[in-house]
Amino acid sequence: MIRLDSPVQYVKGVGPRRAAMLEKAGIRSAEDLLKYRPFRYEDRTRFRRIKDLLPDQETVVQAEVLVTGFYTTPMKRVRIFEMLVGDGTGSLQVKFFNQVYLDKVFRKGQQVILFGSPKADAYSVGLQLLNPDFEILDTAGEQSIHTGRIVPVYRRIGQLTTKTLRHILFGLLQEMPEPLEDPLPDSLLQKYSFPDRRTSFRLLHFPEVPDKQPLDDFLSALDQARTPFQRRFVFEEFFFFQLGLQVLRRQRELAPKTRQLRLTPQVREAVKKVLPFHPTAAQKRVLKQIVGDLSSPKIMNRLLQGDVGSGKTIVALQAMIVAVENGAQAALMAPTEILAEQHYRTMGSYLSNSPYRLALLTSSVKGKKRTQVLESVRAGETHLLIGTHALIEGRVEFKDLALVVVDEQHRFGVMQRSEFMEKGDRPDTLVMTATPIPRSLALTLYGDLDLSIIDQMPPGRQPVLTLVRKSNERAEVYETVRRELEQGRQAYIVYPLIEQSEKLDLRAATEGAEYLHSEIFPEFQIGLMHGRLKSEEKDNLMTRFKAGEIQVLVSTTVIEVGIDVPNATIMLVEHADRFGLSQLHQLRGRIGRGRDKAICILLTEGFQSREAFERLEIMRRTNNGFKIAEKDLELRGPGEFVGTRQSGLPEFLFGNIVRDRDLLEMARADAESYFRMADEAGEGFDPEALAQLATWWKQRYGLYQVG
Ligand code: ADP
Ligand code: MG
Questions:
Q1: For a tag on the chain, would you pick the N or C end, based on fewer CB atoms within 10 A?
Q2: Stretch (H or E) spanning 675
Q3: Is the Cβ atom of 566 under 6 angstroms away from ligand 1?
Q4: Which of 308, 336, 318 is CA-nearest to residue 275?
Q5: In sequence order, which residues have a C-beta less than 8 Å from that of residue 490 and are 6 or more positions away?
Q6: Among candidates 233, 152, 150, which has minimal Cα distance to 197?
Q7: How confident is the model at residue 420 (pLDDT cuts 50, 70, 90)?
Q8: Which of 345, 350, 324 minimizes the C-alpha distance to 405?
Q9: What pLDDT was estimated at residue 414?
Q10: Which strand (E) or helix (H) includes residue 164?
């Protein structure tokens, strides 16, 4: 008897050789195989008759092979395999390009299934199928598996074709014991009336149209994963993912903190003293949450979200001062050198009258200077260490690291985040992000963190006015920039990734800067900022821009995150249609940071796509980062949204956090209350099951772990 946990090798039709192929796709057990879901379904309940075929409409045809043969086109010498198939109502030409081996695949008299959209061809009568998906039915018995129903189509695994996989799964489903053990608690199965697991697996692979549902409705539900059995698996996956997060969080909470920071009146005083302005109510509230964590016996793992310009930096600094006042150290990690340097400079100026010592560590800090920094950090003479990911390289040792702040967290790979956590004696961790993260994504990416939100802008801010302009309106656009400059304001002019090469991008920016200097704004100082400058050069540029010695900063996208120069009130973005939404929002966040009205001009040559147009429209209509993020997630999908493969976004087999966000919310709530209930009752969660879940979870989603 085969069981869910039987090695896949013992599934009928698999064996050692195929098991090795499956293993490569991560399929080890019968259950893994059952979870190998079809990537689409094909309706083979009603084949279209050849005589009823319409051009350019996707269809499935079942027919007999009548004639096969090869020919080579005279001009381009393409080898074409051609066959004629018929189904009694007519015949159809089928062509495959450059697939010589097909000669050995098709034979006269075979029954074949063909999937594709027929094309009308000017040179021949009737329709043709070009390079269709195909399946050959070898024996009559196969008909019942592969036709006459809605059939699953799988992605090929090694040499296992969709048809082979379908065959194996069909057999496996027959062999599975009845009923199957269900990992979901009964209460939830009932709550959502999910079909049982065995039925769900069967229907997942071989769907059946429910009695009262029209076929087309059902097919489109299948397509969007809205059927009960598909949703069941999505929910199951999300539920255990969320439960795992709860477990991890619990494990971390149980691990004792070596040091609890104290909030004495003296500490309070010190924290207040650094403030150059009155904090907003939101900043106060968030600081209170953070300080609450710092002084609690549990390790802090908190995410601080706040739109660009909402004032996260000062809150982070205050938290760092609490650590330092307690005689410990704090570190701040930023994603770029420019940003690290800026933090170093601003924090340095806020702290100029304090006894605290700051140091900067980036990859440009080299040689003797670097040794000095490393030594003073180890000796505890440096209280606040600010830097880039250079901070998490092996050689940095702290004397007593109590708090780690990670700025613009979304720019870091997850590995880096967790490496940082290993420094010091379980430091408290605050991660900050200015890319507002839609809730569905936050639940997934940061589901084990506590969340603080700064949902209020410092006083006096006005929304940035955003204009979309065609490049033939350039002259007028430059006039607008000039008007700002003449009032003593400053401008950013941003060049995007135009070519797939850093060198060429740099050239665009360089030429742009030269042109502006000689032709457009000769009376103003123009600076050129890009990623290849040495760090002293960047530093120097930023200092001069901040001081107002440079009025126009031409830049590649390196200024995207964090840069803060309130007197810069206008931004011109070249080729704005090539930027993603979140990136535009970040860029635009560089202006409108003071009390003056700011203008952002998005320049475009024209739109490559409807989507590009839509993006700029959204930018024009709203300044709300959360709305923009939701839209961005929708337009680009979670993977792209988060950025890199390293993003740490867990890979789900069934779930899609955009499409299935309702299920994600449900699973989150259910996992929380399930965990809490089992916890309170002191039952349900025997430690072994808990440990098992944690192990499984780490294997499955391992990299992504935070603390
Ligand atoms: P972000 O959240 O994007 O990192 P910053 O921390 O860089 O934003 O703050 C943006 C700007 O707002 C900075 O110039 C900062 O000095 C200013 N700022 C922050 N908080 C306040 C406040 N409560 N009142 C006035 N200005 C503030
Ligand atoms: Mg910031």
A1: N
A2: helix 661-681
A3: yes
A4: 318
A5: 484, 545, 548, 550, 551, 552, 553, 565, 567, 568, 569, 570
A6: 233
A7: low
A8: 324
A9: 44
A10: helix 162-175
CB of 336 within 6 A of ligand 1: the answer is no
- Write out pLDDT tens, residues 430-444: 988 876 667 667 777
Lookup result for tokens 């760090």: 535
The Å distance, Cα 434 to ligand 2 centre, comes to: 7
The overall average pLDDT reported for the chain is 86
**Quick one: tokens of 194?**
């999910």
Measure the CA–CA gap between 422 and 445, rounded to whole angstroms: 19
- The domains located in the chain, with CATH, are 48-147 (2.40.50.140), 265-454 (3.40.50.300), 465-622 (3.40.50.300)
Quote the distance between the C-alpha of residue 560 and its chain's center.
18
Q: 347: closest CA among 319, 328, 370?
A: 319
pLDDT at residue number 50: 93
- Name the residue type at position 10: Y
- Cα 442 to averaged position of ligand 1 atoms, centre (Å): 23
Q: Using the structure block, give the residue that is written with the tokens 């097919």.
A: 219
Q: Which of 399, 388, 385, 397 lies closest to 356, judged by CA? A: 385
Q: Which residues contact 436 (CB under 8 A, 6 or more apart)?
A: 305, 307, 625, 626, 628, 629
Average pLDDT over residues 300-322: 91
- The DSSP call for residue 102 is G
Shortest-distance atom of ligand 1 to CA 589: 3
Contact in structure between 119 and 53 (CB atoms under 8 Å): no
> For residue 320, what are its two tokens?
């760092």
**Cα(242)–Cα(305) distance, integer angstroms:** 21
Cα 243 from Cα 188, distance rounded (Å): 14
Phi/psi of residue 559, nearest 5 degrees:
-85, 5
Ligand 1 centroid – CA 464 distance (Å): 16
Alpha-carbon gap, residue 21 to 28, rounded angstroms? 10
**pLDDT score, position 261:** 92
| Least confidently predicted of 77-91, 461-475, 669-683 | 669-683
